[in-house]
Amino acid sequence: MSAEATNPGNPGAAGRGRGRRRLELRGLRRIGRAALLGPAPRDGLPHALEHVAKVHRRHHPDAALDTLVRAYLLAESSHRGQLRKSGEPYITHPLAVTLILAELGAETTTLTASLLHDTVEDTDLTLDQVRERFGAEVGYLVDGVTKLEKVDYGAAAEPETFRKMLVATGNDVRVMSIKLADRLHNMRTLGVMRPEKQARIAKVTRDVLIPLAERLGVQALKAELEDLVFAILHPDEYATTQALVLEYAGRPDPLADIAERMRAVLSEAGIDAEVLVRPRHLVSVHRVRLARRELTGADLGRLLVLVAEDADCYAVLGELHTCFTPVVSEFKDFIATPKFNLYQSLHTAVTGPSGEIAETLIRTHQMHRVAEAGVIALGNPYAPTDGPDAPEGERADPTRPGWLSRLLEWQRTTPDPDTFWTSLRDDLAQDREITVFCADAPSDGSDATDGAAGEAIGLPAGASCVDAAYERHGERAHCCIGARVNGRLATLATVLHDGDSLQLLMAPDSAAGPSPEWLDHARTPAARLAITRWLSSGSQEPAVGPQGPAEPPSGPSPAGRPAPDGETPAAARATPGSVLAVADLPGAAVRLAGCCTPVPPDTVTGFAVRGGAVTVHRALCPVVARMAATGRQPVGVRWRGAGQGTHGCRVTLMAEAFSRPHLLADLTEAIAAQGAAVVSAAVEPPHEQRVRHTYTLHLPNAAGLPSLMRAMRQVPGVFDVLRAGRVRQAAAMRP
User: Fold this and answer.
1) What sign results for the dihedral spanned by CA atoms 372, 378, 379, 382?
2) Lowest mean pLDDT: which of 209-223, 543-557, 679-693, 702-716?
3) Is 122 tagged catalytic?
């Protein structure tokens, strides 16, 4: 864990404690002085451990300190002679981490492990010795936060270390609590590092550890980490925000007057409540400034009302809305519907006598402890449950975080460290979770479901039906062909919202599979990785999903790089034997372009794409001209079997017609009469009495394409049938 050196001139120090109860920095300085005195006990307690013990006893009056004393003595002797880059004894770092956790109310086992968290990594002490002296539970926590060696893992050491910590956190969330406290102290003392190293550590903290602190509900750590990262990565904005806060510091605080009025109102109503002015931390002030452009004194903080019981929260809300003018749009009830990170509170806003808007939080004292410390406030969530109905010795995590279950699931199928690291950051970038009630519809299309109420599944905000399908069914979601959202048919691209009911429609044909555009709708790493694996398997051509015919993706590929026009990501290529064309590039995988769907005996050309694959386009496809204009060299391709078109193929056709009743039925009847199967169909709204139908069809024999197009042209009202390669040209000519 190699704690970084201290620096009293750290620019992140000033103002970082705004918006919450400060973790006691004076206690940290006291620890540093005591560490220099050595481990000599006084009344059985080492000098350096006195303040930690005092804070710990404040939260846990009956806590036994013998284990902490033994852990400190072992850590001090193991780290003896080691110095931090500031010249301080190394033992000050595990002591500071332990004090941070003690301030948040961590129980004794967590504090014991935090004292020892660097011993296995940085000293000669072994994990077996830790287990032997302190038990398997402490040994597990220490092992969970111990880094993997760069000597063994090279550049993959950091992502693999986080993978190891996530797996350990899946069994015991206290592992991540220790890691967060460790990172907070290292960020506080990062000042003497080179600027580029400060920036690298700050970015990892921003992308991974701050979202994890949010998900575990540890707002006290999250707020300070955000301010420290803000100071390093955005020093100018940090200085501007800090100057604004200092500018208002000498002015009267409008929130103090409103708080005094609230106390009088609640006292008169007989409600025992504590009303506090809670300053925002600097990042929160910066966000408010960006949202509102101009700040007032009331924007620098919020009011916090603390009561004893849940019912008192609603009583306070009623009194405030009666005696003050409420801002209705600001009301949120996180007591009836807690956030996924255990957070509970009532949010409202009221108008003061001078027109100031005072944002107000209403919660019980216990809710406040959980809001500040998250899972740490639960004590030991893994202690055997009591009661006659509880299985003896069973461990049950009361937090049951769905996001963590998802991370653990997809990391098992992501051996590549770079893919894991990218997917982890993407998943953690989702800052909210929704719950969807999912009951599958049968494949025969009837209205019956396999479950009356359905299964509740957790998804990140912004997730689509594609994500829900893979969350519910894993690899079997390849066969999903559609969905009903709240009883109405919807495309798989439909974005889901909290509380939606969902029925997934599954194809009876197990050979069905996802199309490349599903990647545009997938938000969760599990869905994206499963789709990419299927597309890269080359077992069959990419299917066209229920959204309509495949179009060249315009967004980034799964690897994060833009895909060239007309190409799907390299992962979506087929194997050399899976298509009808052969490239003049030995060993190259070949696939047919989805933008023009070439079939024998079309004149075709190819272009090499990422991963050594070759994409086959019709010679008249507009993409060919664009690639040639950029200097891309074509690759010779030819059809198998001399291009006789004796194999099945997939093709996209566009029918231009005059709008009339029953046109769709007549066209599909003509298509069926030619033996072609409709994979997908899209009908554009009529424009000046003309309409365009686009069909993606599977033909049993490519040689039947000309007769199929003739049959479609003979349908009354149809004046032209075009191949997909000419669709964009026709669209450009359309008024």
Assistant:
1) negative
2) 543-557
3) yes
